Structure formats: C-alpha cells, structure tokens
Amino acid sequence: MRCLEGFYYRAACRMARENRPKKNSQTGEWTYPARKDVFEEVGLYTLTEYIDRRRKTIGAYISTDRSIFDLCRNGERRRGTSSDQLNNADLESEEVASSVVSEDASEVGSQSSIEDSA
Asked: What is the chain's Cα-based Rg?
C-alpha cells in the first residue's frame, strides 16, 4: 500500500502548479511539500479516504435486506448467459451436504477438546 500511496503522491505533485518538490541548487537536497497541501491544490483526497468511502458504500449495500443468493436464484436467465445452471434439486442437495460437513466439523472440534483435556 505504501508503494501505491507514494506513486499517488508523486502523480499529484506532477499535477500541482505551486506545491511541487523543489531542489536546493546549493546543497542538491530536495524539499517536498506537505501531502495535504498537494492533494488540496489538485483536488484529490488521500487513498485511505477513497478506500473508506468505498467500504462504507459496500457495507451499506450489504447491510440492506438483499439476499444476493435469493435474487440470483429467483432471477430470470438473460440472453447470452450459460444454460448449464444448477436446478433446485442440486441446490437442495448442496445445502444438505454443507450442513452435514458443518455438523461433522463441530463434532471433530468437540472430540479434540475432549482429547486435549485428557
């Protein structure tokens, strides 16, 4: 993430007119402006702000009462989509199989805790 932020900052510096890195002609050292000033000048936000906004948008979408699986299952097949889809019997058998696997896993966990205490 640091590499991406560095690239993003350098790109913003190139877009800026006033807040650009400057080289001291006597010492040869570069001075860099504050990131906040550069982003403010070019009208950008930090990457973390963009990521936080996107996470909030996704969280709001997920938290609504939308069951994506049910929407897909009950939706109509559109032209151009694969006709090799699972039918309801296959879905029900997969649900039963997954519940059996989860029950087996819980039994294994309880057995290992018994063995650990012995």
From this structure: 28
| pLDDT given for residue 82 in this prediction | 72
Helix H or strand E encompassing 16: none
Spatial contact of 24 and 67, defined as CB atoms under 8 Å apart? no
Query: How many residues are there in the chain?
Result: 118
Coil, helix or strand at residue 88: helix
Residue 22 pairs in a beta bridge with: 31
Q: Which residue has the tokens 């006709």?
A: 83
Report residue 12 as tokens.
Answer: 């913003």
Please tell me the predicted confidence (pLDDT) of residue 113.
Answer: 44
Residue 89, both tokens:
């019997």
Distance CA 66, CA 69 (A): 9
For the whole model, what pTM was predicted?
Answer: 0.48
* Positions in the chain short of pLDDT 70: 65-66, 69, 83-118
Calpha distance 11→42 (Å, rounded): 10
